[in-house]
Design a protein that fits this description.
This protein is an alpha+beta fold. It has one domain: Thiol Ester Dehydrase, Chain A, CATH 3.10.129. It has 4 helices and 8 strands, in the order H-H-H-E-E-H-E-E-E-E-E-E. Strands 1-2-4-5-6-3 form a 6-stranded antiparallel beta sheet. A two-stranded antiparallel ribbon has the order 7-8. It is globular. The chain starts with 6 loop residues before the first helix and ends with a strand. The relative contact order is 0.18.
Length: about 160
């Protein structure tokens, strides 16, 4: 029996990423070069034309919660979801500034060990909003799900940004 691909169900509901493969690769390289990505140990993969993948190859002490277990801290999980949902939405808007404006997370079981993988897609978009969904897997087991809204930033004449 072939292995189950967790991205398959998400891909079936996804809006395609409206960037060609070289542009997706450049976007991922730029994101992966950010200090915050390197400090977290996360890696963005946009090879799939519909599914955003965030990987965490190793779980370090900085990723752990404070309850005396080896479970990954909820703040780390929230950060991974924000990254995945934000990218899934942002790539829908062709270079416009955009960011996560709503994030809802459901923790289903503790995530203990690497590899950690977050898969995310844009389900629907309008000219200024993208509705996104993500799943977090630890050692291939579904541990948490999230949904979010990503909005294009607009600027006031005075330069003040609002969503």
């Amino acid at each position: 029996m072939p292995a189950h691909d967790p991205a398959e169900a998400l891909r079936a509901r996804a809006q395609p990423i409206p960037l060609d493969a070289p542009t997706r690769e450049q976007f991922a390289a730029r994101m992966n070069g950010l200090a915050s990505m390197q400090m977290m140990g996360a890696r963005l993969d946009l090879a799939d034309p519909a599914v955003v993948r965030i990987g965490l190859a190793e779980v370090g002490e900085q990723h752990l919660g404070g309850l005396g277990t080896r479970a990954i801290n909820g703040a780390v999980i929230a950060g991974l979801f924000d990254l995945a949902l934000g990218v899934a939405g942002t790539v829908q808007f062709g270079g416009q500034r955009a960011g996560t404006v709503e994030l809802s997370i459901k923790l289903m079981r503790p995530a203990f060990e690497a590899p950690i993988e977050v898969l995310s897609v844009a389900l629907k978009r309008s000219p200024h909003l993208a509705f996104t969904e993500a799943e977090l897997y630890a050692e291939g087991r579904l541990c948490a799900v999230a949904s979010g809204i990503v909005a294009v930033a607009s600027s006031q004449p005075q330069g003040e940004t609002f969503w």
